[in-house]
């Protein structure tokens, strides 16, 4: 549904911090399914950990937040080029269930919960091969820059 070129229109992130490779499903103001292909070439694997490469949990949460940002931007019909930014405002109920390692494809599933005064709330999960790797409730703030 969205390739990397279109994703780059809706997220201001760039290498090495762009953590969404493709969007496979999107229903405005409802849900999104996206993926992150995890490669041994990721720069964080040099130090986390050289003998046992594991994707840092905070980056899994960031990937879920980026998918939520795409859902928010698409729902509002805004882009960063329009002077809008979707800021990570918070996360609750973060849980990690499985390690994410090179060769995994992280499937990011985000469901819209609510929005009030420019703060959007999403329920997010990250899966690998159908198994839950992480979950969180994420808050994003829609702001003009």
Describe the structure.
The mean pLDDT is about 95. The chain has helices at about 5-10, 55-75, and strands at about 20-25, 30-35, 85-95, 105-115, 120-130, 130-145. Strand 1 and strand 2 (about 30-35) form a beta hairpin. The chain has one domain (about 5-145): Roll (Thiol Ester Dehydrase, Chain A). It has a six-stranded antiparallel sheet with strand order 1-2-4-5-6-3, with helices on one face. By secondary structure, the chain is an alpha+beta fold.
Write a brief caption for the model.
The chain has helices at residues 4-10, 57-76, and strands spanning 22-27, 31-37, 84-96, 105-116, 119-128, 131-144. With 145 residues, it is α+β, with helices and mostly antiparallel strands.
What's the domain count? 1
- Which percent range fits the helix content? 10-25%
Task: Determine and state the CATH class.
Answer: Alpha Beta
Briefly note the structural class of the backbone: alpha+beta
Q: Low-confidence parts, pLDDT < 50 over ≥5 residues?
A: none
CATH 4th-level superfamily:
Hotdog Thioesterase
Radius of gyration (Å): 14 Å
Most strands sheet: 6 strands, antiparallel
Report, as a whole number of angstroms, the end-to-end distance. Answer: 28 Å
CATH topology: Thiol Ester Dehydrase, Chain A
CATH architecture descriptor name? Roll
Number of helices: 2
Strand content: 35-45%
Q: What order do the helices and strands follow? A: HEEHEEEE
What's the arrangement of secondary structure elements?
Elements: H1 4-10, E1 22-27, E2 31-37, H2 57-76, E3 84-96, E4 105-116, E5 119-128, E6 131-144
